[in-house]
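The records we work with from here on pair a chain with its fold. A complete example follows; check for yourself that the lines match position by position.
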Amino acid sequence: MFTGKTLVFFWLYFCRLDGVFADTDAVKSVSVMEGDSVTLNSDTELKDDDVIEWRFGTYGPLIARINRELDEIFISDGTDGRFRDRLKVDNQTGSLTIMNTRITDSGLYEVTIRGSKTTFNVTVYGPDKTDKELYERGTEKESDTSSAPSAGAVAGIVVVVVLLHLAL
């Protein structure tokens, strides 16, 4: 039958260690003052045949698409025209730039490259200093909890410990 070490190996193989212990669903927070530009970087080394898709909102409408193999770039104004002439994508890096930001640009932006998704939480604050201070206080609270391990990581660690204990 299977030994404890074999079970651990199979478990790690099927769960893919990087997906269990790395926070793949992390949301990157970005703040910008209304009227300024903001660039959302994909932080992925792109390949010549990559397709990069940007959406406004998780599973929201497609706002930009880069097909590097066909050297095609598609940019949308958004379903309600909110981004009209204000989006730019970089074919080399896959990053998305929102120019002349507005309060209504605040929200989640999702980039998908090779099936891997990264989410950005963009907050556009007004010129009033109080808006920025309130946002920064909220960000500090969020960042305190982001250092805690995810539920998947905790479950993965518990399973490994139990399997190692059974193997001994």
Notes: The chain is about 30% helix and 30% strand. The mean pLDDT is 78. The two ends are 15 Å apart (CA to CA). Strands lie at 27-33, 38-40, 51-56, 62-67, 72-75, 87-89, 96-98, 107-113, 116-125.
